[in-house]
Amino acid sequence: MDTVFEYIKWRGDLSFDEAPFNEVDALIFSRLSYLDFRGFASESFDEARPFSMFGKFAEENGITYLIDKDKDLVSCASASRRFGNAAVCGFRNEFDEELQMQFSAVSFILDINGKKTVCVSYRGTDSTFVGWKEDFNMSLMDTIPSQELAEEYLKDVTDNYIYPVIITGHSKGGNLAVYAGSHMNEDRLDQLISVYNFDGPGFTQKNLSYHGYSRILDRINTFVPQSSVIGMLLKKLEEPVIIHSDERGIYQHDIYSWEIDVTEIKREDKHTFSGRVVNDAFEMWLEGLDMEERDVFFGTIYDLMKDTDNSTLKDFSEQKIRNSFSVLRSFTKLNDDRRRKVLEVMTKFLRMVAENIKGNINN
Q1: Confidence (pLDDT) at 304
Q2: For the purposes of burial, counting CB atoms within 10 Å of the CB of 232, is it exposed (0-12), middle (13-18) or buried (19 or more)?
């Protein structure tokens, strides 16, 4: 199976002048936003450094990576002409546990068809519990703090550059890309070339109805794997492109499992049976919950995870059995009313799954 690594080896010697920017390039830049550019890229847009220099900087400064394959991506992409020549600037990284906000964005200055172009990349959810709680908050709030920061960040970009703009993001970053693009000022819209949303969740009805969303609809490119879970949460105006992942279930969210077909991500005709069942069940379940039920359920899950004294999913998984028992122990200590409400919400979801299994089999 060809992955982004094979793509870079094949296409990496060609500049964006010689071979047009495509969806695989957008996918790679969306993943580069997960890198820790602190100390390498300025928060401002006044200066930019070639991405080709980042690998050495990371090694000399002990930069850590979210997952091992990110380090491999840096090694491969930074050594290529195509990605190594991208200039990195405008790195922002903000985290606030009280606000339940995790936000990061970075910009890459590219030469495309003889013109300077800025590729804005929004980071998705990292492994912190706060980052995942913010995702849950999307079903509770019309606007989460990261969406507001994404809008402000894009305004800073267009205030500093009159270049054409490409926006990309994976997971929550894809949602932020669409949100920021839909909130661009009218007089800057001619700068917007395209928006790429890679398996990012959708929006509340208020955001779907916002005129800015439909205004850029023809420039939005959304991709979800055949058994997508994250990317099918909530609703979108655009019809997602179904793509192929070599993994199963939630692990399809990993872009390194996506198969690359020349300059495209390999397509699938439809979602898998399991994907349809889970997605339909989750959508019906969520729509059937009132705001209090959502708040109690997601808030309790977050509190239980925090009670393990871990701050990231990675930390939690390193002692999965012990931490799971800790979660169960904390759950039994909840007051009767809260515990009852959580169990009722969980029962509703299992009931929806069972109903959707029957429905999809009959269809």
Answers
A1: 78
A2: buried
The residues, any chain, with a CB within 8 Å of residue 128's CB and separated by 6 or more, are: 95, 102, 311, 312, 313
For residue 352, which amino acid is it?
M
d(CA 224, CA 244): 9
User: Could you tell me the pTM of the whole model?
Assistant: 0.89
pLDDT score recorded for residue 126: 65
| pLDDT lower than 50: segments of the chain | none
What pLDDT shows up at residue 132?
65
Question: For residue 163, what pLDDT is reported?
Answer: 96
In single-letter form, the type of residue at position 216 comes to I
pLDDT for 127 = 59
Ordered by start, the domain boundaries in the chain are 4-271, 278-362
Options 3.30.70, 1.10.287, 3.40.50, 3.30.1490; which CATH number does 4-271 get? 3.40.50
Six-digit token string for 98:
């009280």
Token pair, residue 294, equals: 């959502």
Cα three-residue angle 255-158-33, rounded to 5 degrees: 20
Length of the chain equals 363
Residue 58: the pLDDT is 96
Residue type for position 74: V
